[in-house]
Design goal:
Largest sheet: 4 strands, mixed
Distance between the termini: 32 Å
CATH superfamily: Glutaredoxin
Number of strands: 8
Shape: globular
């Protein structure tokens, strides 16, 4: 790994659920991409397509960016992280999976989803949970997001996949579904789908996810601003706005 400096910042972050100690490299290192312009604010987001808090967190961040009218001054890069890396290709019933993983009763799970749904509505994101909903394997989705980065389509595809899974009852582990969503954002379907069987692309995504886990990431979303300011969990839009305003002021 290139340009790794010895000093590592240990940052304690308050999330909605717990405290997380995350080691973040304070230099320009892989899998970070170089800024296209030194005048842009770099935001690196570690997340999964099927993570509800990731969807809410991005909507809140997007709101802050819109309110400050700085869309042209922000560069976002998405990084792979699977909540369920061992999820079988056929997926599992989401209710049973989450009840078992989180130790929740059916009533407890429904209360949790009602809360998430309401927060989503306030943020402008629609959650459409249903009884047969599945937790699915998202590795192929992350490969396509890696491909989309080459065409500055990462954010567009990320949002499209989130909406397809949470709002439109689509199985985003299904290759036919993925091909449809890729086409919707204007990417070359044949080239994109070929990446799913490309050994180099597969290994790159695996390496990037391992990188973040090695840094201590165990809960998402994680947002890293200009490589050294970390926010864990779905912060309030006002909190993102305050941070972004501070970064803008420093650049002046």
């Amino acid at each position: 790994m290139k340009n790794i400096i010895k000093s590592i910042l240990k940052i304690t972050i308050i999330s909605q659920l717990s405290f997380l100690s995350l080691n973040v490299l304070a230099s320009q290192t892989e899998p970070f991409e170089k800024l296209q312009s030194k005048d842009k604010i770099q935001i690196d987001i570690i997340s999964d397509v099927v993570c509800p808090w990731c969807a809410i967190g991005y909507k809140r961040l997007s709101q802050a960016i819109d309110e400050l009218d700085i869309k042209e001054n922000v560069q976002i890069q998405w990084h792979p992280f699977q909540l369920n890396p061992d999820m079988p290709r056929e997926g599992q019933n989401a209710n049973k999976y989450l009840m078992n993983k989180l130790g929740l009763t059916k009533d407890g799970l429904m209360q949790n989803r009602q809360r998430v749904t309401k927060l989503g509505e306030k943020s402008g994101f629609k959650f459409n949970y249903f009884e047969e909903m599945k937790k699915v394997n998202t590795f192929n989705a992350h490969i396509l997001l890696d491909y989309a980065k080459e065409f500055n389509k990462q954010t567009e595809l990320k949002v499209r996949l989130q909406e397809a899974y949470f709002g439109e009852k689509k199985d985003i582990s299904n290759r036919e579904i993925l091909a449809i969503e890729v086409k919707k954002v204007g990417l070359n379907v044949a080239q994109a789908m070929a990446r799913l069987d490309d050994k180099e692309a597969i290994q790159r995504v695996k390496d990037h996810e391992k990188y973040w886990r090695d840094q201590g990431a165990n809960a998402i979303p994680i947002m890293i601003f200009n490589h050294n300011i970390v926010r864990m969990g779905a912060n309030k839009a006002s909190e993102y706005k305050e941070l972004l305003a501070e970064l803008i002021a420093k650049d002046k």
